[in-house]
Amino acid sequence: MNRNRVLLGSILLIVLSLALWSNRAGTGSHSVQPIVDSDSNLAAGKRVYEGIILRAALIGGGTYEPLYESIAKFERDTGAKVEIAFKGNNYELDKKINQDVVKHSINYDVISTHSNLFLQYADDLEPLNSWFTDDELQDFSPSILYAGKIDGDQLMIPRLADISVYFYRTDLFHDEANKSKFKAIYKYDLAPPETLDQLKDIAVFFSTIEYGLSGIQFAGKEEAITGRFMELTQAFGGDFFDENKKVILNEIGGLKAAQYLRDLYSVGAMPKDMLNYLWDEEEYNFASGKVAMYSEWPGWYSTLDDPTSSTVAGEFDVFRAPAGPSGVHPGWGGAHGFAIMKSSNHKQAAAALVKFLTSEENLTSESKLGFAPVRLSVWEKVLNDAKTGDPRKQNFYKVLNTALTEDFRTPPPIKQWIPLSDILYPYLQRIIVGDISPKQGLDAAAKEITRMMAEPE
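RESULT FIELD:
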């Protein structure tokens, strides 16, 4: 049977299962009463939002940018004008929104947000149930839609799903001399690792003076390192909270994960300045040929494969995050999307903009950049296109699908996720560079997080 047909079937089966699960969990949508007249007028070519100015605060940089070029079409079709009030990376944007919420100075209608972040300011977001029909939402993956809900209110419409896969240099892995040297040292073949122990071996191997490379890298500050630590903690059999919401990240799984990061850093397998990295710096290092392998979001694929921006274009591939001793594959997942501020005076036009940005046409274009689709119709197109495409791209979508369907785990659904991260990541940095032991650092972090979680919201 055609491999892609099997893959598509597995996606649809999983999505249907998730839909049934969501219904059993009481997550069905409220009845909706959309503004039908405006939708009909738009379909008839009438510029129904003539004179309206919409302001947006958006995530920017890298492959997030091409979508915004299409806004000019929205403006031509609707008559609305879209002003970008703020643009920054995920963390800059989140800080901006939170500051504006606290100061009651929100002056924008539409925002980019993330399933890990929107809980903090959920009370300031417009429920979208009245602005989107069931028909308009049925093409979206139920599980990804669910990530944007609170108590049945749809607060975020997804743009893309996010889960990391590992990128690696095929020119290094396929080199016969490298393969021979590696096997002589480690007594097994050099190949994409299947376990975290193998990942460490390969990272150390390529970080020797002979290669002049960093074997592996991680973004080392803010939520970027918190999320990586969380998924490694789970791979080592632990978690951040137990079923009673007690903080347990300082127990055995977290201790092993912290030691793992510390070991890689102490032997020089990771860049010395990684504690200053976010996603752009990571991508630049790999694209510049300075790193043998690293964990990265799928949206960077097209940039890395562009010879005008990458020295490793055509010379890399991807593999699934290697399993930890618990058998769990690291899988820090989430979804980017768009939301509407409750304070907006133009909610109908704002909803039209969100519908436009998350349309099948726009999300199909984004899928070609490597973004993981959130619409079933887009996944089907992606798989059909991959049938006769580059074998590397076929493998990319196969690995991505496996990660999304088997390894996808979001951070705990708490409003304090970012405050938790702000407490934890400085301790993680100190552990990684050897200033304090994993136990000292995690015990101190757990104590502060426990106290923070007990404070009234």
